[in-house]
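Lecture 7 notes: from sequence to structure.
We start with the chain below.
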Amino acid sequence: MSFTSYASDVRPEQIQTDFVSEAMALDGPGAMARVTDPFTSHHAADTISKDAREASERFVLDVLADRGPLTDEMILHVATMNAEPWSPSRIRTARKQLVDKGLVEDSGIKARTDSGRLAIEWVLS
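Predicted structure tokens for the same chain:
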């Protein structure tokens, strides 16, 4: 496995650091990251394509429609079983974007994660 270094491609001072409200829906022309997020989050937000972002959101919607309510971890398990390319971070971000758009909401149910912690089970709104 090889890892690509982006250090020479993008410098931290190139990242826009304007305050971005966490309540703002992330459905604009591109993904966003909070000013408090690390450099790598800004780079990821800048490099994900609109098609990939929309595909991951469609995947989360489809999984919740078929199997919900589910935690983020449960959604990721479905993605893994189906050999989907989504990382845990992309699944959480897609679900959060759908919450911000009013398409997904907290079911009021909590479930234990693999590590034993409680997590919200999400449903379609």
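Points to note: Strands lie at 104-112, 118-124. Residues 50-67 form the longest helix (18 residues).
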